[in-house]
Design goal:
Layout: E1 5-6, E2 12-13, E3 42-45, E4 50-52, E5 57-63, E6 74-78, E7 81-82, E8 88-92, E9 95-100, E10 112-118, E11 123-132, E12 139-144, E13 151-156, E14 168-175, E15 182-183, E16 186-187, E17 194-197, E18 207-215, E19 218-221, E20 225-227, E21 239-245, E22 253-258, E23 269-278, E24 285-287, E25 295-298, E26 306-316, E27 334-337, H1 354-373, H2 383-401
Length: about 400
């Protein structure tokens, strides 16, 4: 990326069309003529202006009398491209101006290079043009804490975002009713618009948090967000997620995991969510009613199918806080497959008549009882149900083999 550089005497250096490398810091030794130590080859005015997009600019280059150069011996470049002679005006024997109309945003945040040259390509003087927009008010401030001692916040740089100028973002915070303003120091920890406060935060007292954006054209301040650390606690994803078969049951998998260790020393509860998908699908199904247990049975799955499973955690009730925390990221996917069905393709069941009707009635009653007494992944013991399902599968296989 090109940058607007400066000579030791204060003028800007630019990428040169005469073979000078982009990004090189140029000095008087590169000029093709001798100068006295105190002399400047030329002076550009205005020097390093800041302008709004769409503005026009007339710049002048006045060369030193020691150079024995005249206005007609000069030309201009912008970012290494020679500007047309039609935009030049000789304002005196040693002064040449250039007119720039309807300027676009700077190509680099360090400024565009406007350079005055002698006819043989030597650099006489340079200026950095900063053309852009004032910053917009930062929006969408969001914060979280992983150990109740730190805080990480992110934000968005307004609706447009791009100002074409280097824009500084400063996250500030203070206790709501007293205390001085504090400035966050660790930026870009969770993305380009983020900052991390690692320690020295108080509990049970709300904070005021805001973001200030500033560049050469102005300052914009976000709305103030008020939060209590206890209300924005999150955790790492649950660890040690294991997915396994449930005996010979063809349509079930068992999921187990460990509670996140970061909050083990604090009084809190946790609720969990599970999501799972078939190997060849991108659509996840979510189980919301897991509660605070660390195991769950997934049912109604396809036999002989690989499933990917993830778990996440939401801490709540920390030190009596009435607000739920923030969902963690999902754990890494864990894979397992259901047992393959051994039913013979094309087999048929004998018509059982009354026996078949009785079985259907019993099944309806049984599933009604399960639905009434179990909610999602409850701790209800279903050993008897498992045994019954295994017996049912075996009876199907026996009938199909006959």
């Amino acid at each position: 990326m090109e940058r607007c550089h400066r000579h030791p005497n204060g003028t800007a250096a630019s990428p040169e069309p005469t073979g000078i490398a982009h990004g090189a810091v140029l000095c008087r030794a590169s000029l093709p003529f001798p100068l006295s130590p105190a002399a400047d080859p030329a002076v550009i005015s205005p020097q390093d202006p800041t302008l709004l997009i769409g503005s026009s600019l007339t710049a002048t280059c006045t060369v030193s009398a020691d150079l024995r150069l005249r206005a007609q011996d000069l030309y201009w470049t912008l970012n290494g491209r020679r500007l047309p002679a039609a935009s030049y005006t000789a304002l005196g024997p040693t002064t040449l101006s250039v007119a720039l109309a309807r300027l676009n945003g700077s190509r680099q945040q360090s400024g565009d290079n406007l350079v005055c040259h002698s006819r043989d390509g030597g650099i006489l003087a340079g200026s950095c043009l900063y053309v852009g927009l004032p910053p917009e008010k930062p929006v969408n401030i969001s914060c979280w804490s992983k150990n109740m001692k730190d805080l990480t916040c992110t934000w968005a740089p307004g609706t447009e975002g791009e100002t074409f100028l280097h824009t500084n973002y400063t996250l500030k915070y203070k206790l709501r009713w007293y205390g001085r303003d504090n400035t966050c120091q660790e930026y870009h920890t969770a993305g380009p618009y983020s900052c991390h406060i690692p320690k020295d935060l108080a509990l049970f007292t709300p904070y005021e948090i805001w973001v200030e954006a500033s560049n050469r054209l102005g300052v914009a301040v976000s709305d103030v967000v008020m939060l209590d650390i206890l209300d924005v606690v999150t955790t790492d994803p649950p660890s040690d997620v294991h997915v396994s078969r449930v005996g010979d049951l063809e349509d079930q998998l068992s999921v187990r995991w460990s509670s996140p260790p970061a909050l083990k020393d604090f009084l809190f509860q946790a609720k969990y969510q599970i999501q799972y998908r078939v190997e060849d699908s991108s659509e996840w199904k979510v189980v919301d009613d897991v509660g605070n247990q660390t195991s769950c049975r997934l049912a109604g799955l396809r036999p002989g199918t690989v499933y990917f499973v993830q778990v996440r955690c939401n801490p709540f009730g920390i030190y009596g806080s009435k607000k739920a925390g923030i969902w963690s990221d999902w754990s890494n996917p864990t894979a397992a497959s259901t047992p393959r069905s051994e039913r013979t393709a094309g087999g048929c069941d004998p018509k059982g008549g009354e026996q078949n009707t009785t079985l259907r009635r019993e099944l309806k009653q049984f599933f009604g009882w399960v639905k009434k007494h179990s909610y999602g992944c409850s701790n209800l013991s279903i050993k008897l149900y498992d045994q019954w399902r295994v017996w049912l599968q075996k009876s199907h296989k026996t009938r199909n083999q006959v």
